[in-house]
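Archive transcription. Copying these from loose printouts into the bound notebook so they stop getting lost. Printout 1 of 2:
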Amino acid sequence: MSFPLGYTGPLSGIVLGMVFGYVLENAGFGSACKLTAQLRFQDWAVFKVMFTAIVVSSGGLYLMQALGMVNVAKDLFVPSVFLWGSSLGGVLIGVGMAVGGYCPGTSMAAVCSGRLDGLLFLVGIVLGTLGFNAGFASIKAWAWKQSGPDSLTLQQFLHLPTWLVWGLLLATLLVVGFLTRGASAARGRSTT
């Protein structure tokens, strides 16, 4: 591949990270209140933005695959699922987001915009990561014990054509957007 698809240098990561942080902050995702409102099913903006990103990126990937620009079997790494380890990780990050109101990316956006709670959350991420790494040897065998699907993409796992999986993702986004449109309008009116 040629530039920019084949360029993976540090500068691209820095530039894309800054753009991503800027977009997060301008969307209001640098606020713990926005993220905890999603967890309380009161504000669906986070879901809509993240699911839109999934639909757009998966659509782009499927299109590049159809055009022969990407060979999924050769060019992409699809990890195997470890059910116990993934479940534990999901619970830990879910509890962290519910308590702190941030995920790793939004906490960095909060820090860069001067929020003290974002800095405290980021310190918690670092301490939690160090603590988990220190104790991981004792749970390693358990976490890797129950292996799930081995390197399967969603369409391979579901035994469905790629276009149908993408269509289901798009339909999910549109249905959630339709069902929550009134809640978003009401929330907007209550904050003005």
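Printout 2 of 2:
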Amino acid sequence: MTKALLLLQTQNSGDSSALGEMSGLILIIAAGLFIFLLITVFIRRYKRCPSDRILVVYGKVGGGQSAKCIHGGAAFILPVIQDYEYLDLTPISIEVNLVNALSKQNIRVNVPSRFTIGISTEPGIMQNAAERLLGLGQHEIQELAQEIIFGQLRLVVASMDIEEINSDRDKFLTNISESVESELKKVGLKLINVNITDIVDESGYIEALGKEAAAHAINAARKSVAEKNRDGAIGEANASQDERTQVAAANAKAVDGENKAKIEVANSDSLRRQREAEAERVAIAAEKVQAAKALEESYAAEREAEEARAERERSSQQADIIVPAEIDKRKVEIDAEAEAERIRRRAKGEADAILFKAQAEAQGLYEVLTKQAQGLDQIVAAAGNNAKDAVLLLIADKLPELVKTQAEAIKNIKIDKVTVWENGGGKDGKTSTSNFISGMYKAVPPLQEMFNMAGMELPEYLKGKDITANNAASETTTSEDSEEK
């Protein structure tokens, strides 16, 4: 029984290991297939551009461009978001037979020509081709270019005279090339070659110009032959004359050469003797100069030694006398600057304290006046906004103080001695003593006078009129009324 169980366990373990190996193998195969598919897609989407074509990648190419042009390279075409096409660079030959084109002189001419064009590979122009020629066939491109060439060829003919077109073909071809090529670049094309076969006009003007040019050429040739014959005869005579002249000149030149050679020999001997004398003189002078230089250097060395000794003495005296004096001078300057700075700071502090005190006093005065103004505003408001009544309120409030001030004006007058001579009688029953006291009291300004000086009138209840005088006045008025009756 035990052996059977062991055999069963061994078989089960073998099956599980076989399943694990099988699953690992499947994963490896799947990964290999996935990698193979990726490589295949990459190879199929990696496009190489031939030399006779332009690879145009369109779609999402980035950089704000509608397409990306590649010539002579390769690019990876992203699936789904990009696609590609080719532009053929094969040259296109176009026959342009311009008929009845008006020149600058209003003469109609025929200009048969052949133009060779192709798609340009310059970066900017190649971009124009990708935007305007992609998807067009060669025949459609040829028709488009032919229309552009016809128009520009007519403009060039209309801007030139017949004489220029016929005589200056290089200028005519240059104008055509510049005008046509500038327009072809706008659609992505370039001009490769221009060939003008012949230029013919209906009136025969060009043919007449040719005959005139031929006649001029024949006459010029005949004139040239006659001039050449004349020049040959004159040249022969001149040659004979030159021969005799040159022989005589050669003989004279030979004699002159011999004389010059002798003179040069004599000059060479003289120059040699001069050089020898000059060398001797220079040698003697050099010896004397060297001796003088030796003495000069000796004197110079002695002078330098004396100057060095004097400089040493001067430096020693400077260190002993001038340096201490400079130190004392600098110390005095520093002390003076410190004292000046201390005075400036003390003055600045006092000025700041005065300013702060003045600002505080001004602020306090401002607060007092502000409060007084607010109180006066409230008093005026309490008086019904009547300024005169408000003043009366203020005076009524201060009335006890005013009366007290009037009483104190004569309160403290000290009278040591008063001598009165009177007979006991006086006006209105008053004695001299009473009149003296009354006059002294009347010296104090009454309330009525104070109000009059302020431009106001004291109320009747504060004037203090005599009751007796009032009664007398009333009695007088009553008696006058009775008499009239």
